[in-house]
Amino acid sequence: MTAPARARLLVVEDDPDVGEALSLLLEDEGHDVELVRTGAEALAACRTRPPDVALVDVSLPGGMDGLELTRALGEDPRTREVPVLLVSARAHEDDVAAGLAAGAHAYVVKPFRPDRLLSLVASTVVGEGQPDLERRAETD
């Protein structure tokens, strides 16, 4: 088995505990992680130095939620190639459809299985990931 590709990831999460946990999970896998708390901070970070992948919570404070951020990234020539993985507790079909329609590469429902999220990140980094819906398994 080959080692996963090392990537520069942007985590956009307003909950400090969730943001730290997600960052640690990704760093333990060998990725470089930048954590920001708002959509505006994320947009500025992506314009300055686009990450390989952005993991974005849908519910963000400050006037720009994850869907608006995803659309803004897709409309900007400097950031349109950044794959966005939306990570949200909003699990209704309409929420998932709205996320994918906004341009997200995938929609991951919290709580998620860490191994599945890491696999999705790895496949996205190497360009093999496809737009996807990650559903929480009822039993593992």
Describe it for me?
With 140 residues, this protein is of the alpha/beta class. The protein has one domain (8-134): Rossmann fold (3-Layer(aba) Sandwich). 39% of the residues lie in helices and 19% in strands. The protein has five helices and six strands, in the order E-H-E-H-E-H-E-H-E-H-E. A six-stranded parallel β-sheet has the order 2-1-3-4-5-6, with helices on both faces. Helix 5 (114-125) links the parallel strand 5 (106-109) and strand 6 (132-134).
Descriptive key words:
alpha/beta; disordered C terminus
In short:
With 140 residues, the chain is α/β, with parallel strands linked by helices.
CATH top level is Alpha Beta
Q: Which descriptor suits the 3D outline?
A: globular
Distance between the termini: 23 Å
Taken as a percent bin, the fraction of beta residues is 15-25%
| Structural class by sheet pairing and helices | alpha/beta
Low-confidence stretches: 129-140
Strand order of the largest sheet: 2-1-3-4-5-6
Whole-angstrom Rg: 14 Å
Task: Count the E strands.
Answer: 6
Count of discrete structural domains = 1
Biggest sheet descriptor: 6 strands, parallel
Bin the helical content.
25-40%
Topology:
Elements: E1 8-12, H1 16-28, E2 32-36, H2 39-48, E3 53-57, H3 66-75, E4 84-88, H4 93-101, E5 106-109, H5 114-125, E6 132-134
Parallel strand pairs: 1-2, 1-3, 3-4, 4-5, 5-6
Helix pairs in contact: 2-3
